[in-house]
Write a structure and sequence with these properties.
six-stranded parallel β-sheet, Rossmann fold, seven-stranded parallel β-sheet, binds adenosine-5'-diphosphate, 754 residues, 21 helices, 32 strands, GIY-YIG endonuclease, globular, alpha/beta, 30% helix
Length: 754
Amino acid sequence: MTTTEPEAISPGTATARFFVQVAIPSPLRSLFHYLPPKESCLSQLIPGVRVEVPFGRRKVVGVIVAIDRHCPVAEDKLKSVITLLDDLPVIQQPILALCRWTAHYYHYSLGETLSQALPKALRQGKATPSQTTTFWQLAAPVTESIKASLKRSHRQLEALCLLDNAEGEGLSESHLLESGINKTILRNLADKQLIACTEAITTARHFTQFTPICREPSLTLNHEQQFALDNILTHQNAFHPVLLDGITGSGKTEVYLQAIEACLKIKKQTLVLIPEIGLTPQTVNRFKKRFNTPVFSLHSGLSDGERLEGWQQAASKSAGIIIATRSGIFTPLPSLGLIIVDEEHDASYKQQDTLRYNARDLAIYRASQAKCPVILGSATPSLETYYNAISGRFGHLFLKKRAGQAAPPHMELIDLRQHSLTDGLSRDLLAQITVHLNKGNQVMVFLNRRGYAPSVICHECGTVIDCPHCDAHMTIHRQPPYMHCHHCDHKTAIPSHCPSCQSPNIQPAGQGTERTEQALTKLFPGYPVIRVDRDTTRKKHALAEMLKTINAGTPCILLGTQMLAKGHHFPSVTLVAILNADSGLFSADFRGLERTGQLTVQVAGRAGRSNKPGHVIIQSYNPEHPALQILANNNYTHFAEMLLKERTKLSLPPLTYLALIRTEATHTNDCERLLQQLRQVLEQVPTDPPIKLLGPIPAPMEKRQGRFRWQLMIQSSRRSMLHKVINHASYFLEQAKISRTVRWSIDIDPQDMN
Ligand code: ADP
Ligand code: ZN
Ligand code: ZN
């Protein structure tokens, strides 16, 4: 029998010479060439396979991205790959393409990008869990003379008899181990050529083998929902980005569920991205309840092993639906047929450090490569997506009515200038809370500040106690009592005297959730007050317990931060109160108002989601602010139009494109100097139309964690020009000497201007 030998490549021979291009997890954006490992074949060197390579004095895990016949480096300078870590690529081709695009777009190292795309265990070089099973079977019939020859080796004889009685492909090694036969016994028998083994691929059930697809019948869609679904399904085999612009409670999730069902019917997988799974176990449960096809959710609460398992279920097509947070965009899905980005406006889709990608934007790219629809769902679309939809780049589907029986809530603005307040609560609001509780309903009070009070002030000299490491006030907590900086995590005891004038007359100023909880508990002694914020939900299962109480439906007051605004469905809540709508109205960040509007509409959307009518009260010192007026009419589209006009006037995104270069150092001068030098370099880059450079200026919070921070903003009406300039910028920053003392980063499409 002849077999075709794979082409052997022995480095150094003149016949066939190949070089392996490897992406290495290092901030350097270049790729590195290595010689193939000794005794390797070309067929083993596949892009996407992990390798262990020498890098400086270390050994690191990299990923093969290409095989080259030419190498820019002299061959005697090259090192060899130490080992190939995989037989088959762990980074599949579409993920490699996605990572290449991501690294290029965000001006980031491909090695670091690939490393973020892998589950931690694989990033560290661990083996992929075995997908094969070893089977043992007889190599020859068991004769009496063989049995006699094994008279002194009882265990070997026992193993042989077990295999003699087995049918078909023999017995799996794990079965034999469980029966008390160890590997030495098997090896001894194999050496005597009495038994032999074969490897078989373990076939976990493929997601398409689960029938029926659904466990429960789907709902009958209303006209708007049906129209939306039909539109998505007519483009089932093509790249089709759509904004599903549906008010809260309009039944977007039901549209997702039926789109997924249709996708499963054509034997394709779905990726669902959601902002934060820990906060909304209800969402995941809705998917699991509907489908018989396996659903896997990937989120930060999983152990590394569980993450790897989910990743593998997706890669091996055991899972038909993957529900994941931001980093799930890199999940391998060989039969991808649909991507859903729920609450597409949510800021958590943008990673705020290292690789500053936006998973929503990556989802668009990924769908374009997979030639499948991508649904961006929101009641409060980001201006970027809204603009893409109205300008025709994305489809635009509307759900304007609430699904089922629910009607939109009644909105009311309360002018705080005309009311005396009890711990931040106006008299009218307190009266309404009483009315709703007496009717047996639940009330939700929203305040976006955790802790007891956001600052502590001296009534003698006016000193406000600041964090020694940041340009920020210390928040006071009472349960337990301490002062906490929410920006750098610095903690201290609560002082008894003013640090400036030693006066004992220091008082908390302003309202935090702890303080409001105390007030509400005193004012409504007959009702439980459930506080939901980062402090009360820190323990595992704490939030689940609270949600259980809330879902029991008995009257209570829910008090919380924006954690309460995200996607929850609380059918018994009829009154929602926003204690202070003003903080975001005058923000220095141009996105401040957009975020305030989204939060307001989302919070308001928690009211009256079933058949009881909802009421929303917004307290403000600026009720005449045009944005609040529009929001009080509960019309997000008008709000978005207003913002868009303003952004057009100021040439801000989505009308133009931005990049932010941030620097950080122990000396403020170093930050400024580096950016000043950079600015001079960038001014020389020819661009058409000319780009705008703004800065260097100190960041809104100049000092954080003891370091000073500056930024330079680059703005252009053409993306290609922006990228051209950023290419020059990253080259300069990588070379500049001063870069050694200054930490710098590039943020493309920044979401947070701080
Ligand atoms: P959204 O995702 O837009 O906030 P949901 O999908 O959660 O809205 O729907 C809100 C409520 O309306 C849910 O209780 C859901 O079961 C119900 N619902 C959705 N679509 C329908 C429908 N076609 N008929 C009846 N009830 C529906
Ligand atoms: Zn003082
Ligand atoms: Zn601090």
